[in-house]
Amino acid sequence: MKDASPQTIYLKDYTPFGYVVEGVELTFALAPEATRVKSRIRFAPNPDATDRTFFLHGEDLTLISAAIDGSPVTPTLTEQGLTCEVPDAPFTWEAEVEIAPAKNTALEGLYMSNGMYCTQCEAEGFRKITYYPDRPDVMATFDVRIESDLPVMLSNGNPGTQDGGVAEWHDPWPKPSYLFALVAGDLEARSDSFTTRSGRHVDLNLWVRPGDLGKTAWGMEALRTSMRWDEEVYGREYDLDVFNIVAVDDFNMGAMENKGLNIFNSSAVLASQDTSTDANFERIEAIIAHEYFHNWTGNRITCRDWFQLCLKEGLTVFRDSQFTADQRSAPVKRIGDVIDLRARQFPEDQGPLSHPVRPESFQEINNFYTATVYEKGAEVIGMLKRLVGDEAYDKAVALYFERHDGQACTIEDWLQVFEDTTGRDLSQFKRWYTQSGTPRLSVEESYEGARYTLTFRQRTPATPGQSEKLPQVLPVAVGLLSPGGEEVLPTQLLEVTEPEQSFTFDNMPDRPIPSLLRGFSAPVVLERESDAAEQAFLLAHDTDPYCRWEAGRGLARGSLIASVVDGADPDGAWLDALRAVVTDPALDPAYRALMMGLPTQSELAQALYEKGITPDPDAIRDAVEATVRATADRWADDLRGLSEEARVAEPYAPDAQQSGKRALGTRVLSLVSRLDGGSAAEAQFEAADNMTLKLAALGNLVRLERADDALAAFEAQWKDDRLVMDKWFGIQIMSAPAPVAVERAEALTGHAAFDWTNPNRFRAVMGALVSNHAGFHRADGAGYDFLAGWLARLDEKNPQTAARMATAFQTWRRYDDDRQAKMRAALESLRDKPKLSRDMGEMVARLLG
Ligand code: ARG
Ligand code: ZN
Hints:
Layout: E1 9-10, E2 19-29, E3 35-45, E4 55-57, E5 62-68, E6 71-72, E7 76-77, E8 81-83, E9 91-99, E10 109-113, E11 116-120, E12 140-147, E13 152-155, E14 158-163, E15 166-175, E16 182-185, E17 188-195, E18 201-208, H1 217-234, E19 242-248, E20 255-256, E21 261-265, H2 278-293, E22 302-303, H3 309-327, H4 330-349, E23 361-362, H5 371-388, H6 390-404, E24 408-409, H7 411-422, H8 431-434, E25 440-448, E26 451-459, E27 474-481, E28 487-496, E29 500-505, E30 513-516, E31 525-527, H9 532-541, H10 545-566, H11 572-582, H12 589-596, H13 601-610, H14 617-634, H15 636-646, H16 656-675, H17 679-687, H18 691-703, H19 708-718, H20 722-734, H21 738-749, H22 759-771, H23 773-776, H24 782-795, H25 799-805, H26 817-831, H27 838-848
Parallel strand pairs: 2-12, 18-19, 19-21, 22-24, 25-31
Antiparallel strand pairs: 1-23, 2-3, 3-9, 4-8, 5-6, 5-9, 7-8, 10-11, 12-15, 13-16, 14-15, 17-18, 20-21, 25-26, 26-29, 27-28, 27-30
Helix pairs in contact: 1-2, 2-3, 3-4, 3-5, 4-5, 5-6, 6-7, 9-10, 9-11, 10-14, 12-16, 13-14, 14-16, 15-16, 16-18, 17-18, 18-20, 19-20, 20-21, 20-22, 24-25, 24-26, 25-27, 26-27
Bound molecules: arginine and zinc ion.
The site of arginine has 15 residues, from strand 20 and helix 2.
């Protein structure tokens, strides 16, 4: 609940804790309303600290007793924790507290989900379990004893005594409290094993509620693949005798890397052909890998403080992207990451929530688990690797593991291993961590007497709290093509470090065509006077898959913006050039499917806004629909052949090859359904033997308002499957015609299965409405009021998920005065609510700016 005055925490104020923890023993006597937690903690004065204040975090705890070296003490209790007089020498702290997991709706600390006990301690949830220095730089070994009559009781590390009613766990690796986990319930496991390359036998278990075992094969396979990959690519082995994964239905985020006991949102681990789409399978594979990779980048080497969150998250996202690129198609993964970055991180960096990859202050750290920290953080690692080269990257990372194993580190430590390995000065590069905002890079070219010159100019627009920006290091991968489409200069890495900088290329007999920012070598906005002829040339000839795709995107953007602004017809030359690529049988179907994608309506709104044009969501939607229709008409003769190519004859597998075909088929179906009124979609809905095809068909039927029967059948079949029902809720709103999207969402919140305290269900409805751009931004403001009303309601139960969903308002200043006023009013109504959470309080204040 609202603090009297929310405190801002600053990076510059960091000081170490006055004590080190030499060991932690915890005993849990589980009961839904009254769990008792006993702690026995050995503290010793920290020689590296000057401040000896003994403060332990603790929230929503009932203290039963406390003792130091066996003698009862009476600590001073506050809202945030306790302080106590302690000896000036090593001592043992003992406490007993009572907590009520069944009443914990925030899903932080120890809570219950479907009768199962589980925990989420990152970032600051452990303080809701017992009194402790709940900060990542305090690392200790944990011994845990769990008492209950539940059949399965798990914690971190290796199992000890497991006797009726009691389970003991010992984690030999010192860890911060945010990596603590406990699970207890009536669970079943898919079990397997893995032998590390140095011969350690590891038992693997994926725990689920009874009934879900049929959805665990994919997760287990992904885990084994990840374990092998981290050995082969990073030389990292697993370090315990068991690795447990648990699927939980009520979870605020995707998953959590607790040492030896990863806890997953069931949506991020459970998969089957009937219930999951290809995209679900790919996401699950990536998240399993991500959490597993954290064992080294996060757990063995952790963060000194929460400002360093990108140290583990940026690096681990980068590692999981490499993994996916290796398992599937590297260019397709790269383009997917660019789409995602532009959809989620750019708007963040271009609006009121913009913050550096390493923030300098926060009130609630949960508000900083963002696309900037994660995805831009991963881009920064990718740039570093490009700049120093693959070999130096490997050496530096090996040095990082060797030098910092067992430590809680900073970005400075990370950059230092690169400086030590390469001798480079990375002080300018470090601005990627400290400076917020998306750099704009403009390019001019000149050609004179066989000399070709590229001149780059960089600037970063002001962001909240940072009006002045310094030039950054921009690795710009460039290739040059001859007018005949030959590559005359293979990819070179140019380092743009100045506000303005030129690069010359001699001996160019013809004026070359530049292929810029290959592989999206830096997360910038490339500003280049759009020249449709050049983009068409690159679309036809570029050897870099990203640049080729981006050329098509540029043409699409140009055509769509012209349609919105002047009501122009879609650009026929673009559609013809695109058809040549999309129908090229030599290209990967997954890549062709990406080529067929259009920028999102939200992205177009931002593009218009940056051109000084106030975006009209209805006009954007109309332009997109007209463009899709025009594409269908123009390609009408190719659609049958494309559908044939997209057909999968083999039994279902969620691999890259089959998924790519289905992705292409899904694009084609959306065009076909513009021509046939939905009969192909209806047939596909009936015939589909997997969720990918089924859901694609259903989306088209919803858009065409002929989905009543299909929706009813779908619901009847899947009413008992929470994850599938999330899809059912979402698609009816996401694919609905914009004018009815809010009413659809409203009606669905009245459905008996709308359990709004379940984060997945809440997001399925609210997230779907937000993704229906013109629907959410309906001119009368109904979408804004609807969302704000639900955020206010959820904030009382689950501040974290509510505050995160509030980011839907981050683009509010783009729109017309009327919409702005309505969004401002919605945000102000939230702000003025009594008892606003710290999460929501900070979020709304930042959004209002
Ligand atoms: N560390 C988790 C991950 O792998 C995210 C957990 C975030 N949880 C939270 N409550 N903020 O990305
Ligand atoms: Zn992570």
